[in-house]
Amino acid sequence: MISKAYFSDVTVPTEQFAGLHREDSLMFNIPKNYSAEFEKNPDLYHIALIGVPEDRNSKNIGSALAPDAIRERLYALYKPFDNVKIIDLGNLQQGKTVKDTYVALRDVVTELHKKNIIPVIFGGTQDLSFPVFQAYEKRRKLYNIVTADARLDLNNIDKDLHAGSVISSFVADKPKYLFGLSNLGFQSYYTPNTDKNLMSELLFEAVRLGEVRTNIAVAEPYLRDADFFSFDISSVKMNDAPGHFNPSIHGFYGEEACQLAKYAGMSDRLSTFGLFEVNPLFDERNRTTELAAQIIWHFIQGVYLRQHDFPISKLKHYKQFIVKVENALEDIVFYQSPRTGRWWLEIPYTAKSAKHKMIVSCAESAFRQASANEIPDIWWRYYKKLN
Q1: Domain co-membership, 124 together with 154
Q2: What is the average per-residue pLDDT within 195-223?
Q3: What CATH number corresponds to the domain at position 67?
């Protein structure tokens, strides 16, 4: 069980929000700090904001200051919808050691999941994704992770965990229930071939920055199947987000970062969102904290725009397309929602001498590829993983 002892209260000065319409701004619509009321009625809330002032396992010292700096910008924004069911639990208490912070965050995420509340974690460095991974491992169910990062950070396997080795440390930890891991926006000049090859060998997916920027919609199916989206602010270009000790001159535009967050929020499956590496010490005119606030706002908006597609809706209500592809092991089956137009793909596999199928999200381009007598890349990737 978590309690108020896990959190320190936050106070946002109300004077700077004097000009806001109280009935519309987030400042006056989100209850703040862990309380007895929350403990008694957690079902009143759908999203819980959690600041984590922790940067001791990173070179990006100053990120611990991010939670309160982001709050100042976030609370100045107006609520996306009338029925806002959000609570700000405050800042997670920094543990005596970094590992203590990890354990506390893992426990908080675990308990919020039990209450069907989506944790939105912000501030601190990306090594805070590791305890979130551990929370999913404790559930003993298959899960998928999507990261947005300019670097794959797989060249540190078997080395100690730090903010630049999150994925490699987790892979080295040999997770039992991790099914899919995808990274959006990696930049080839920051990424050794060994990292790209290892992602391929592990049947994980790495999507180049240029591919996402050419058509940002390619990211949507990855996020629709994700359980956790971990966003490193350094994946955004320096002009839009200078607040990092090592920003990149290239990267996502701010608008694209917000769109990715919105896609994540709209995923009926996604249950944790994390925004990391914002460093106010390197920020210029609050550009990074302002963007961070808007990224969180767009995620919240996405949650309220959820369409309750598969797996909430039954496939029998969807259009089914059976495509015969030459040299394919069997027919390739697609489903499309008549309401939203989104697509899914059926992956057959055999387990314990019985035939099964897994339904995965895909883009319409996969259907077009199959219709052109080509086996879709996504079909092959999942088929290899399952069989």
Answers
A1: yes
A2: 94
A3: 3.40.800.10
Helix (H) or strand (E) holding 321: strand 319-323
Q: How many CA atoms lie within 13 A of 226 on its CB side?
A: 31
Predicted local confidence at residue 382, as pLDDT:
93
Residues 358 and 209 in one domain: no
Same domain assignment for residues 69 and 209: yes
Q: Find residue 248's DSSP bridge partners.
A: 237
As for how many domains the chain has, the answer is 2
Answer whether residue 114 shows pLDDT above 90: yes
End-to-end CA distance of the chain: 39
Asked whether residue 203 falls in the same domain as residue 235, the answer is yes
Distance CA 263, CA 301 (A): 10
The continuous run of DSSP H or E covering 222 comes out as helix 220-224
Angle at 206 between CA 205 and CA 212, to 5 degrees: 115
Q: Which is nearest to 234 in space by CA: 172, 147, 331?
A: 147
Question: 294 with 343, same domain?
Answer: no
350-381 pLDDT, tens per residue?
A: 887 788 999 999 999 999 999 999 999 999 99
Listed residues 284, 304, 324: the one ending a domain: 304
Please tell me what DSSP assigns to residue 160.
Answer: P
Q: Which residue range forms the structural domain that includes residue 322? A: 315-386
Per DSSP, the three-state class of 202 is coil
What was the pLDDT predicted at 158?
A: 52
- Give all strands (DSSP E) within 149-295, no chain letters: 178-186, 205-208, 228-232, 272-276
Q: Are residues 229 and 297 in the same domain?
A: yes
Q: How far apart, in Å, are the Cα atoms of 129 and each of 136, 163, 229, 310, 330?
A: 11, 9, 9, 27, 39
Q: Residue 209 domain-assigned? A: yes
| Position 22 pLDDT exceeds 90 | no
**C-beta separation of 44 from 30 below 8 A:** no
pTM: 0.95
Residue of 109, 116, 111, 119 lying closest to 43 (CA atoms): 116
Buried b (16+ CB within 10 A) or exposed e, 196-214: bebbeeeebbbbbbeebee
Q: Mean pLDDT of all residues in the chain? A: 92
Model confidence at 157: pLDDT above 90: no
C-beta separation of 167 from 147 below 8 A: yes
Q: Within a domain: residue 44?
A: yes
User: Nearest CA to 184 among 257, 243, 240?
Assistant: 257
